[in-house]
Amino acid sequence: MIVVHHLNNSRSQRILWLLEELGLDYEIRRYQRDPKTMLAPPALRQIHSLGKSPVITDGDLTLAESGAIIEYLVGRYGNGRLVPAAGTAERLRYTYWLHYAEGSIQPLLLMKLFFDRIEKGPMPFFVRPFAKGIVDKARASFVVPNLERQLDYLEGELGRSGWFAGDEFSAADVQMSFPLEAAVVRAGLDSKRPKLMAFLERIHARPAYRKAIARGGEYGLLR
Ligand SMILES: N[C@@H](CCC(=O)N[C@@H](CS)C(=O)NCC(=O)O)C(=O)O
To answer: What distance in angstroms lies between residue 108's CA and the mean position of ligand 1's atoms?
Structure first.
């Protein structure tokens, strides 16, 4: 039985969604973030040393890292569904987006989250102006312009085809959902980028997405 070690408000939601798209049976083990630090509980480290979510177990296998989990699930159980055919241009695009989501845009979104939190977080009053100066500079000179460039790029890519890997919905769209949802709450993604917003609307309307939300429970991305 596939078990998803599911942290509330986290990337593991997209694994639940993928499992629903594939119509597979699975079990959810739930972990709650610490309400103050927002970190995962230590119990998750008993499943995988890094203590991050998602992690799945399937028989003797324990597997972490969203992209690897997605590749495993579609490869082992997909019967060719949700992956473009090997050797096609679409397959290469599919591979690209699977890596891009966690390798390129997600680190910037995480930096944005941390800088915003440092600014709002508690600190001695005399330190605040210095901290704010550093945070403002890092955001304005690096994080925000890079995020803007990435979002413009993604808007252009969805102008080429309806889905990230081509004209068919694929597991790459599942992988790309999380950074785009995070960009709405953290990076000002809005109707000025209509293709990305239409993508989000389309995925949110999918029955499997809604079922995964209903099963996974609380899903609000951190700001
Ligand atoms: N690149 C990893 C990132 C995993 C990750 O950072 N997960 C977050 C949830 S969205 C987490 O577990 N955060 C809690 C913590 O760091 O304690 C993946 O895609 O699986």
So the answer is: 14
Burial 165-194 (b: 16+ CB within 10 A, else e): bbeebbbbbbbbbbbbbbbeebbebeeebe
| Cα 55 to middle of ligand 1, angstroms | 9
Q: Give the confidence band of 223 by pLDDT, cuts at 50, 70, 90.
A: low
Nearest residue by C-alpha to atom 12 in ligand 1:
52
Q: Closest by alpha carbon to 73, among 12, 15, 14?
A: 15
> Distance from the CA of 132 to the center of ligand 1, in angstroms?
26
Name the phi and psi angles at 73, rounded to 5: -65, -45
102 lines ligand 1 (CB under 6 A): yes
* Phi and psi, residue 35, nearest 5°: -65, -25
Any ligand 1 atom below 6 A from CB of 65: yes
More confident residue, 41 or 121: 41
* Residue bearing the CA closest to ligand 1, atom 2: 65
**Which pLDDT score is estimated for 70?**
98
Instruction: Ligand 1, residue 40: give the atom nearest the CA.
Output: 17
In Å, how far are 20, 53, 172 from 179, measured between CA atoms? 20, 15, 12
Q: Mark 80-111 as b/e (b = at least 16 C-beta within 10 Å).
A: eebbbeeeeebbebbbbbbebbbeebbebbeb
Q: What is the pTM of this model?
A: 0.96
137 vs 190, higher pLDDT: 190
